């Protein structure tokens, strides 16, 4: 193979190799075999990612500490937050579960938001990438499958359907903060073109 490997890109779905195309802002490059989008740079994408990541951080704090829901039945009621739910498993043999819930729902998503702000904020301002920006971005991509805030809110929605027949359920501000967090995360990821990110990091990194 005479071409440099740096000029090739593999489709994440079918592994077909392509020469890196030159894609302008607003255009898309798709896999010729399965149609998966390989590159889709967007206007001011880095600025939007930084803004949405900061918004997600604020929503995460509200989602963790504000009341999530209130259950009431037969004149008795109880409010609970996500932080209370994490602490509920913090005794005895359930302690590992407490750590797992806190990590997957809170710590890993917040780590990913902070990492993306660290990576994209300097470049959004036109500066050179921050120190070790490539390693930080790689870390944020590795923990992406384990950041399960979105999965949590889906699980809660399913559980509420079953609980609603047993008690009166009042959704608190943290529930809506989580819903907003899911929407913001989806929007943020829609601006992310990972191939373009790596190209920008390589082009702007000091040699």
TL;DR?
This protein has helices at residues 45-65, 82-87, 95-124, 133-142, 149-163, 173-190, 194-204; strands spanning 8-10, 17-19, 29-30, 37-39, 69-73, 76-80, 168-171. The protein is α+β, with helices and mostly antiparallel strands and 207 residues long. It has a three-stranded antiparallel sheet. Strands 1-2 form a two-stranded antiparallel sheet.
Describe the overall structure:
The chain has helices spanning 45-65, 82-87, 95-124, 133-142, 149-163, 173-190, 194-204, and strands at residues 8-10, 17-19, 29-30, 37-39, 69-73, 76-80, 168-171. The protein is elongated and about 70 Å long. Helix 1 (45-65) runs antiparallel to helix 3 (95-124). It is an alpha+beta fold and 207 residues long. The chain folds into two domains: 1-41, no CATH class; 43-204, Butyryl-CoA Dehydrogenase, subunit A, domain 3, CATH 1.20.140. A three-stranded antiparallel beta sheet has the order 6-5-7.
Strand % is 5-15%
Return the average pLDDT rounded to an integer: 89
**Spatial strand arrangement across the major sheet:** 6-5-7
Radius of gyration: 21 Å
Give the topology string: H per helix, E per strand. Answer: EEEEHEEHHHHEHH
Q: What structural category do the secondary elements indicate?
A: alpha+beta
The tally of beta strands, per DSSP, is: 7
* CATH fold title of the largest domain: Butyryl-CoA Dehydrogenase, subunit A, domain 3
Compile the SSE list and pairings.
Elements: E1 8-10, E2 17-19, E3 29-30, E4 37-39, H1 45-65, E5 69-73, E6 76-80, H2 82-87, H3 95-124, H4 133-142, H5 149-163, E7 168-171, H6 173-190, H7 194-204
Antiparallel strand pairs: 1-2, 3-4, 5-6, 5-7
Helix pairs in contact: 1-3, 1-6, 3-4
């Amino acid at each position: 193979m005479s071409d440099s490997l740096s000029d090739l890109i593999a489709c994440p779905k079918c592994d077909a190799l392509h020469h890196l195309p030159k894609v302008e802002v607003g255009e898309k490059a798709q896999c010729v075999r399965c149609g998966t989008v390989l590159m889709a740079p967007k206007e001011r994408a880095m600025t939007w990612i930084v803004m949405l990541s900061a918004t997600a951080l604020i929503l995460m704090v509200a989602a963790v500490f504000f009341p999530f829901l209130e259950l009431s039945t037969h004149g008795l009621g109880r409010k609970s937050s996500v932080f209370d739910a994490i602490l509920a498993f913090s005794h005895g043999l359930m302690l590992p579960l407490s750590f797992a819930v806190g990590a997957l729902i809170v710590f890993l998503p917040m780590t990913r938001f902070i990492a993306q702000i660290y990576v994209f904020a300097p470049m959004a301002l036109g500066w050179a990438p921050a120190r070790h920006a490539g390693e930080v971005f790689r870390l944020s991509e590795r923990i992406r499958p384990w950041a399960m805030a979105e999965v949590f809110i889906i699980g809660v929605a399913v559980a509420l359907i079953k609980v609603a027949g047993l008690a009166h359920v009042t959704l608190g501000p943290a529930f809506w903060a989580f819903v907003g967090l899911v929407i913001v995360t989806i929007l943020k990821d829609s601006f992310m073109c990972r191939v373009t990110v790596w190209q920008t990091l390589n082009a702007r990194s000091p040699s």
